[in-house]
Amino acid sequence: TDQGLSDILEMCGEALTYLDISETNISGAGLSALRGKFTNLEKLELSWCKNLTDQGLSDILKMCGEALTYLDISYTNISGAGLSALRGKFMNLEKLELSECVNLTDQGLSDILEMCGNQLNHLIISTIYISTNISSVFVESLRTSRPDLQIEFW
């Protein structure tokens, strides 16, 4: 549960560098109280968290600091809405996985990318099993504007 996760995270210190809460029922609700607590977190895995909301994701990301280099939110129902408020927060993010996010839109992806800096060098947006709202036109424009970014889109 979200409360259970909050209780566990309260016990963790700032030294936490890796957090994998994939395949849990968390929504992210109520985690805003932990804002800025995990400044050394480098790797965050949230894949298959089907109850994760955009606001919950925002609250979870607010727990993290600039050390984050890897983020996996694949197979979630996030749309990316509202994440532009975190613009420039993750300047060291290198790899971002967004595969099979059925509600993700071009605008949502754009908002998510605004969180990232130029260190982002690998973006995975596969849509093999589930159709998303990401257009190939948007991906091609992204490839043109960011030729250094390896984009896996199929």
Explained architecture:
The chain is built from four helices and six strands; from the N terminus they run αββαββαβαβ. With 154 residues, the chain is an alpha/beta fold. A six-stranded parallel sheet has the order 1-2-3-4-5-6, with no helix packed on it. The radius of gyration is 15 Å and the shape is globular.
Secondary structural class: alpha/beta
Order of helices and strands: HEEHEEHEHE
Number of strands: 6
Give the termini distance in whole angstroms: 33 Å
Approximate helicity band: 25-40%
Overall outline: globular
Radius of gyration: 15 Å
Q: Widest sheet: strand order?
A: 1-2-3-4-5-6
Uncertain ranges: none
Mean pLDDT: 91
Instruction: Work out the strand percent.
Output: 5-15%
The major β-sheet equals:
6 strands, parallel
Number of helices: 4
Short synopsis of the structure:
By secondary structure, this protein is of the alpha/beta class. The protein contains 4 helices and 6 strands. The longest helix has 10 residues.
Question: How do the strands and helices of this protein lay out in sequence?
Answer:
Blueprint: H1 2-11, E1 18-20, E2 43-45, H2 54-63, E3 70-72, E4 95-97, H3 106-114, E5 122-124, H4 136-145, E6 150-152
Parallel strand pairs: 1-2, 2-3, 3-4, 4-5, 5-6
